[in-house]
Amino acid sequence: MDSFGIKDIIDIVLVAFMLYYLYKIMKESGTISIFYGVLAFIIVWVLTSAILEMRLLGSILDKFMSIGLLILVIIFQDQIKRFLVELGSQKRWKILTNLFHHRKSEDGGDSKKWVMPIVYACMNMAKSKTGALIVIQQKVPLDNYEKTGDIIDANINSRLIENIFFKNSPLHDGALIIAGDQIKAAGCILPVSHDTNIPRSLGLRHRSALGISQATDAVAVVVSEETGGISIAYHGNLTTRLSSTELEHRLSQLVEL
Predict the structure, then answer these.
(1) Which terminal residue of the chain has fewer beta carbons within 10 Å of its beta carbon, N or C?
(2) Dihedral class, residue 212 (left if φ above 0, else alpha if ψ from -120 to 50, else beta)
(3) H/E element, 220
(4) Gap between the Cα atoms of 47 and 40, Å rounded
């Protein structure tokens, strides 16, 4: 019998890390029940094939595994894309990138100049109880969602944002997407979260904000039409009742443009 060595420990740690990270992403995307189902299926497959050596049942489950992996890739393509983007993001490899360049210190002063126009627009819309949904792109591209609305390609401006969400505007019902320092599109359609833990008092905008934050790494800002409250959705978590100072802090903290 082979001895249990350092390679086996590393192997177990890596598998545990992979399962934990997969669990975290599935929980944020509201599909944790599917994760438990897949995990239970894998345990049964290992028991029947490797431990109990049930040839007939094991061969049937082997066929399901080969087809099931392809099905899972199709179903969870957004989550897989987000996982790969986050794995290779500059934030995770910050130590290595800092060895080669020091751009952060050079342009850090103007990197968040887009924050205040968004904050001013949200505060004005909150006072007038004008509903709004603003999505800020990060590493995962939002091109497919931009195509569902009208392309704008304009500089970020608080008055422009307020005019887009003005109640008589044809674009006010959809989402506004910001990428880089540009307003890319408005009137966009987003995926809706079906998380049962969302309070019934929250409407379609909040569910759409949660939906896009579960499918991508984007930050979504919501202004409630009913209460004028401001909320932020990020990685499947919704923070409500934000003040202007809290909104500014959260945007500066979460968004990496």
Answers:
(1) N
(2) alpha
(3) strand 219-223
(4) 11
**What would the pLDDT profile of 46-92 be if each residue is shown by its tens digit?**
787 777 777 777 777 777 777 776 777 776 666 666 666 666 554 44
Q: What is the DSSP letter of 199?
A: -
Pairing between strand 175-179 and 132-136? parallel
C-alpha angle 73-143-186 in degrees, rounded to nearest 5: 135
Instruction: Sort strands 182-188 and 175-179 into parallel, antiparallel or unpaired.
Output: antiparallel
What are the tokens at 206?
């909040």
DSSP state for residue 153 in the 8-state scheme? E
The pTM of this model reads 0.67
Sign of CA dihedral 114, 117, 123, 126: negative
- For 59, the token pair is 């061969």
The encoded tokens of residue 170 equal 């044809």
Q: Which of 118, 63, 56 is nearest to 255 (CA)?
A: 118
Q: DSSP 3-state assignment of 107?
A: helix
